[in-house]
Amino acid sequence: MTHQLLHQSATALDLNSVSAPPSSKHLLGTTANGQDVLAQLVSGTRESMLAGLVASVLGTSIAVVVGVTAGLAGGIVDSALTGLTNVFLTMPGFALIFVISGYTRGGGPVVIGIIIGLFGWAGGTRALRAQAMSLRSREFVLAMRMLGESRWRLAMVEVLPHLIGWISAMFLGGFVGGVLAEAGLAFLGVSDPSTISWGIMISQAQQGNALISGMWWWFAPPGLCIALLGASVALVNFGVDEISNPRLRNANRSLVKRAQQASRAKEVSHAR
């Protein structure tokens, strides 16, 4: 796909354009091996986002199941799941991910994403548990319990819709965290070197002394993409939170109304 769009292969070597700066032939220049940086950037986007997506889906799913179950069930189930969550919270997460990724080196972005997701779910679980416990004592949930509704239906129909904002924020945060973790693991050399990702590009640039040689076009594009991804996901998260949180939505409407009133008052004063 990259070759079809850019007419360049991410792995092809152009020995006549080694360490070349951006030009009409290579829009983002080439690496020390003569590989096109733009082709690598586009190809690496798929790998980095795949790792982030797998980590986010797996981590968010585990957090929702554990947090909501603990909050609604209470008793022994809550104590057991809370204890399990605390164990994962006290674990040195990145160190364990680093060690396990080293043993599974060569597994690709999916394996990296699975490892990150398995050790990155505990952070948001406690927040979901607290929200589920708060919803458990609400009148509409108590009424559904009195009518004999099962806990499964209560969780799916009555509780989860009220947690969409929290779950969305957790998913988006986990996505960015997965991309950053994959980049960090690749930079430290425990990712599959045969694949191309943003982290692999930065790692190869560091090994090729790109910073010392002044080859900014080798390491700057993947770093900038990671930064832009984080900023864009944060903006999406703000938008989702505004839509799903009635307090923020009403507050924004009030601010807009006040701004309109102030603008009209200013126009009237100028007219006089």
Automatic annotation (TrEMBL):
GO molecular function: dipeptide transmembrane transporter activity
Keyword Cell membrane attached: yes
Family, similarity comment: Belongs to the binding-protein-dependent transport system permease family.
Gene3D superfamilies: MetI-like
Native species: Streptomyces montanus
Segments passing through the bilayer: 50-77, 84-104, 110-128, 163-188, 216-240
Protein known as: ABC transporter permease
Keyword Transmembrane: yes
